[in-house]
Amino acid sequence: MASHTIPINIKIDTEIEDENGNESISKTEKGSYVHKGNIHMIKYDEQMEDLGFVVTTIVIQDDRISVKREGPLQMHQVFRIGASTECVYYHPYGKFRMETTTHRMQFVKGIGNRSGKIYMNYDVTLNDQEPRRHVFELHFQEEDAE
């Protein structure tokens, strides 16, 4: 089965909740979308304040979603419903053990795979601190042809 890269516009909304309250983060990026069979991949570069560019690759499969970040921040986080997964989060300020427990995740494709949405609800524990609840939504839409 052939695959081709589609340039996309991405909107990301993240909510993080802990004992200190809620934090909401919204951003838009340009990226690319590729799918082949049951594997879907979204990739984008993100300018991180004070750090430089971080390349994020999201791979969606039937039973899991993985997020890989490369650059000044590095990690490979895997999401599986009802499972706890671990990775090491490398940051210029140090490295952290990160445990992720996924409660809900969903990938919805638009018509012709030209748009879609990823939704994830999960808890993250860094270095055995109190877990923080995350809600992550990513919407993508093929760039308009000009």
Automatic annotation (TrEMBL):
Matches recorded under Gene3D superfamilies: 2.40.128.20
**Highest taxon, organism lineage:** Bacteria
InterPro entries xrefs: Calycin (IPR012674), DUF1934 (IPR015231)
Name of the protein in its database record:
Uncharacterized beta-barrel protein YwiB, DUF1934 family
What lineage does the source organism belong to?
Bacteria, Bacillati, Bacillota, Bacilli, Bacillales
